[in-house]
Design brief:
The complex is a heterodimer of chains A (114) and B (113). By secondary structure, chain A is mainly beta. Helices cover 0% and strands 54% of the residues of chain A. Chain B is mostly beta strands. In chain B, 0% of the residues lie in helices and 50% in strands. Chain B contains no helices and 12 strands. The chains are: A mainly beta (114), B mainly beta (113).
Amino acid sequence: DVKVTQSSRYLVKRTGEKVFLECVQDMDHENMFWYRQDPGLGLRLIYFSYDVKMKEKGDIPEGYSVSREKKERFSLILESASTNQTSMYLCASPPPQGTNTEAFFGQGTRLTVV
Amino acid sequence: GNSVTQMEGPVTLSEEAFLTINCTYTATGYPSLFWYVQYPGEGLQLLLKATKADDKGSNKGFEATYRKETTSFHLEKGSVQVSDSAVYFCALSDRGGSYIPTFGRGTSLIVHP
Protein backbone atom coordinates (compact mmCIF):
# COMPACT_ATOMS: atom_id res chain seq x y z
CA ASP A 1 0.00 0.00 0.00
CA VAL A 2 3.06 2.23 -0.25
CA LYS A 3 2.32 5.36 -2.26
CA VAL A 4 5.23 7.79 -1.71
CA THR A 5 8.70 6.52 -0.90
CA GLN A 6 11.77 8.52 0.03
CA SER A 7 15.07 6.81 -0.55
CA SER A 8 16.63 7.49 2.85
CA ARG A 9 15.30 7.91 6.38
CA TYR A 10 18.52 9.40 7.75
CA LEU A 11 21.47 11.08 6.04
CA VAL A 12 24.62 12.69 7.36
CA LYS A 13 26.59 14.82 4.90
CA ARG A 14 29.52 17.19 5.09
CA THR A 15 29.39 20.89 4.40
CA GLY A 16 29.93 21.59 0.71
CA GLU A 17 28.80 18.18 -0.50
CA LYS A 18 26.22 17.84 -3.25
CA VAL A 19 23.26 15.95 -1.83
CA PHE A 20 20.47 14.13 -3.64
CA LEU A 21 17.17 13.29 -1.97
CA GLU A 22 14.99 10.94 -3.99
CA CYS A 23 11.25 10.51 -3.96
CA VAL A 24 9.10 8.05 -5.88
CA GLN A 25 5.30 7.84 -6.08
CA ASP A 26 3.19 5.04 -7.51
CA MET A 27 -0.13 6.89 -7.89
CA ASP A 28 0.50 8.30 -11.37
CA HIS A 29 0.07 11.82 -9.94
CA GLU A 30 1.27 14.78 -11.91
CA ASN A 31 2.00 16.91 -8.85
CA MET A 32 4.94 16.35 -6.54
CA PHE A 33 6.26 18.62 -3.82
CA TRP A 34 9.28 18.99 -1.57
CA TYR A 35 8.91 20.54 1.89
CA ARG A 36 11.27 21.08 4.73
CA GLN A 37 10.04 20.91 8.29
CA ASP A 38 11.67 22.77 11.17
CA PRO A 39 10.47 23.19 14.76
CA GLY A 40 8.14 26.15 15.13
CA LEU A 41 8.07 26.82 11.38
CA GLY A 42 5.82 24.02 10.18
CA LEU A 43 6.08 22.87 6.57
CA ARG A 44 7.76 25.18 4.10
CA LEU A 45 7.50 24.53 0.40
CA ILE A 46 10.85 24.35 -1.38
CA TYR A 47 9.93 23.35 -4.94
CA PHE A 48 7.08 21.64 -6.71
CA SER A 49 6.49 20.03 -10.05
CA TYR A 50 3.23 19.67 -11.93
CA ASP A 51 4.56 17.61 -14.82
CA VAL A 52 7.65 15.88 -16.13
CA LYS A 53 10.48 18.38 -16.62
CA MET A 54 8.30 21.14 -15.17
CA LYS A 55 9.20 22.80 -11.88
CA GLU A 56 8.22 25.83 -9.89
CA LYS A 57 9.88 27.56 -6.97
CA GLY A 58 8.13 27.42 -3.66
CA ASP A 59 8.64 29.70 -0.70
CA ILE A 60 12.28 28.84 0.12
CA PRO A 61 14.09 27.62 -3.04
CA GLU A 62 17.48 29.18 -2.31
CA GLY A 63 20.24 26.61 -2.11
CA TYR A 64 18.11 23.88 -3.69
CA SER A 65 17.28 22.60 -7.13
CA VAL A 66 15.05 19.77 -8.37
CA SER A 67 14.84 17.25 -11.16
CA ARG A 68 11.76 15.54 -12.62
CA GLU A 69 12.84 13.33 -15.52
CA LYS A 70 10.10 10.76 -15.00
CA LYS A 71 6.58 11.19 -13.74
CA GLU A 72 7.05 8.95 -10.73
CA ARG A 73 10.34 10.41 -9.51
CA PHE A 74 11.11 13.85 -8.06
CA SER A 75 14.58 14.59 -6.78
CA LEU A 76 15.68 17.39 -4.48
CA ILE A 77 19.28 18.54 -4.87
CA LEU A 78 21.34 20.50 -2.40
CA GLU A 79 24.01 22.01 -4.62
CA SER A 80 26.46 22.67 -1.78
CA ALA A 81 25.15 21.51 1.56
CA SER A 82 25.36 23.89 4.49
CA THR A 83 24.65 23.41 8.17
CA ASN A 84 21.51 25.55 7.96
CA GLN A 85 20.05 22.93 5.66
CA THR A 86 19.98 20.43 8.49
CA SER A 87 16.29 19.58 8.62
CA MET A 88 13.54 17.06 8.02
CA TYR A 89 12.65 16.86 4.32
CA LEU A 90 9.24 15.65 3.25
CA CYS A 91 8.14 14.66 -0.22
CA ALA A 92 4.42 14.84 -0.99
CA SER A 93 2.14 14.10 -3.88
CA PRO A 94 -1.10 16.06 -3.74
CA PRO A 95 -4.12 14.96 -5.73
CA PRO A 96 -5.02 16.39 -9.11
CA GLN A 97 -6.52 19.85 -9.15
CA GLY A 98 -10.26 19.82 -8.68
CA THR A 99 -10.39 16.73 -6.46
CA ASN A 100 -10.93 16.62 -2.73
CA THR A 101 -8.62 13.82 -1.70
CA GLU A 102 -5.65 14.18 0.55
CA ALA A 103 -1.97 14.63 -0.17
CA PHE A 104 0.23 11.59 0.35
CA PHE A 105 3.55 11.99 2.09
CA GLY A 106 6.74 10.02 2.20
CA GLN A 107 8.19 8.98 5.53
CA GLY A 108 10.64 11.86 5.57
CA THR A 109 14.42 12.17 5.36
CA ARG A 110 16.23 13.54 8.37
CA LEU A 111 19.31 15.28 6.95
CA THR A 112 22.18 16.39 9.14
CA VAL A 113 24.93 18.52 7.61
CA VAL A 114 28.13 18.59 9.63
CA GLY B 1 -4.56 34.02 -0.59
CA ASN B 2 -5.28 30.94 1.47
CA SER B 3 -4.08 30.52 5.03
CA VAL B 4 -4.50 28.19 7.98
CA THR B 5 -3.99 29.19 11.60
CA GLN B 6 -3.83 26.65 14.36
CA MET B 7 -3.12 26.95 18.04
CA GLU B 8 0.47 26.80 19.11
CA GLY B 9 1.69 23.99 21.26
CA PRO B 10 2.78 22.00 22.85
CA VAL B 11 -0.48 20.81 24.29
CA THR B 12 0.19 18.64 27.31
CA LEU B 13 -2.57 16.42 28.68
CA SER B 14 -3.02 13.48 30.98
CA GLU B 15 -4.36 10.23 29.60
CA GLU B 16 -8.17 10.20 29.21
CA ALA B 17 -8.40 14.00 29.11
CA PHE B 18 -10.48 15.84 26.51
CA LEU B 19 -8.59 17.33 23.57
CA THR B 20 -9.34 20.37 21.43
CA ILE B 21 -6.93 21.79 18.89
CA ASN B 22 -8.26 24.94 17.23
CA CYS B 23 -7.93 25.60 13.53
CA THR B 24 -9.26 28.51 11.48
CA TYR B 25 -8.80 29.20 7.81
CA THR B 26 -9.16 31.76 5.06
CA ALA B 27 -9.77 30.67 1.51
CA THR B 28 -10.90 32.33 -1.68
CA GLY B 29 -12.53 29.28 -3.23
CA TYR B 30 -14.29 26.13 -2.00
CA PRO B 31 -11.85 24.37 0.27
CA SER B 32 -11.70 20.85 1.51
CA LEU B 33 -10.31 20.65 5.03
CA PHE B 34 -7.95 18.09 6.48
CA TRP B 35 -6.24 17.06 9.67
CA TYR B 36 -2.95 15.24 9.28
CA VAL B 37 -0.99 13.52 12.03
CA GLN B 38 2.77 13.04 12.24
CA TYR B 39 4.07 10.46 14.67
CA PRO B 40 7.68 10.80 15.83
CA GLY B 41 10.17 10.20 13.04
CA GLU B 42 7.48 9.71 10.41
CA GLY B 43 5.90 11.62 7.56
CA LEU B 44 2.41 13.08 7.64
CA GLN B 45 -0.63 10.88 7.23
CA LEU B 46 -4.26 11.78 6.86
CA LEU B 47 -6.28 11.64 10.07
CA LEU B 48 -9.63 12.91 8.80
CA LYS B 49 -11.17 15.24 6.27
CA ALA B 50 -14.34 17.15 5.38
CA THR B 51 -15.17 18.37 1.93
CA LYS B 52 -18.13 20.73 2.43
CA ALA B 53 -19.79 22.88 5.04
CA ASP B 54 -21.29 21.05 8.04
CA ASP B 55 -19.51 17.81 7.15
CA LYS B 56 -17.98 15.99 10.10
CA GLY B 57 -14.81 14.01 9.60
CA SER B 58 -13.96 11.29 12.08
CA ASN B 59 -11.30 8.64 12.61
CA LYS B 60 -9.70 6.84 15.58
CA GLY B 61 -11.95 8.72 18.01
CA PHE B 62 -11.01 12.12 16.60
CA GLU B 63 -13.65 14.41 15.11
CA ALA B 64 -13.75 17.77 13.36
CA THR B 65 -16.69 19.66 11.86
CA TYR B 66 -16.38 21.98 8.86
CA ARG B 67 -17.89 25.28 10.06
CA LYS B 68 -18.19 27.71 7.21
CA GLU B 69 -19.81 30.46 9.30
CA THR B 70 -16.84 30.60 11.65
CA THR B 71 -14.26 29.36 9.09
CA SER B 72 -13.11 26.75 11.57
CA PHE B 73 -12.23 23.06 11.66
CA HIS B 74 -11.37 22.29 15.28
CA LEU B 75 -10.03 18.84 16.16
CA GLU B 76 -11.52 17.07 19.20
CA LYS B 77 -11.15 13.78 21.00
CA GLY B 78 -13.04 12.79 24.10
CA SER B 79 -10.35 10.69 25.77
CA VAL B 80 -6.74 10.86 24.62
CA GLN B 81 -4.20 8.07 24.95
CA VAL B 82 -0.43 8.13 25.27
CA SER B 83 -0.26 6.74 21.73
CA ASP B 84 -1.94 9.93 20.45
CA SER B 85 1.23 11.89 21.20
CA ALA B 86 2.18 13.39 17.85
CA VAL B 87 2.14 16.59 15.83
CA TYR B 88 -1.20 17.53 14.27
CA PHE B 89 -1.49 19.67 11.13
CA CYS B 90 -4.61 21.39 9.89
CA ALA B 91 -4.67 21.91 6.13
CA LEU B 92 -6.87 23.00 3.28
CA SER B 93 -7.02 22.22 -0.39
CA ASP B 94 -8.86 24.71 -2.54
CA ARG B 95 -10.50 22.90 -5.41
CA GLY B 96 -11.49 26.14 -7.10
CA GLY B 97 -8.08 27.77 -6.90
CA SER B 98 -4.49 26.77 -6.40
CA TYR B 99 -3.87 23.04 -6.07
CA ILE B 100 -1.06 23.72 -3.63
CA PRO B 101 -2.23 22.53 -0.22
CA THR B 102 -1.98 25.07 2.59
CA PHE B 103 -0.81 23.80 5.98
CA GLY B 104 -0.94 25.22 9.46
CA ARG B 105 2.26 25.23 11.50
CA GLY B 106 1.37 22.11 13.44
CA THR B 107 0.47 21.53 17.08
CA SER B 108 2.47 19.14 19.20
CA LEU B 109 0.40 16.97 21.55
CA ILE B 110 2.04 15.26 24.51
CA VAL B 111 -0.05 12.82 26.52
CA HIS B 112 1.25 11.64 29.89
CA PRO B 113 0.18 8.37 31.53
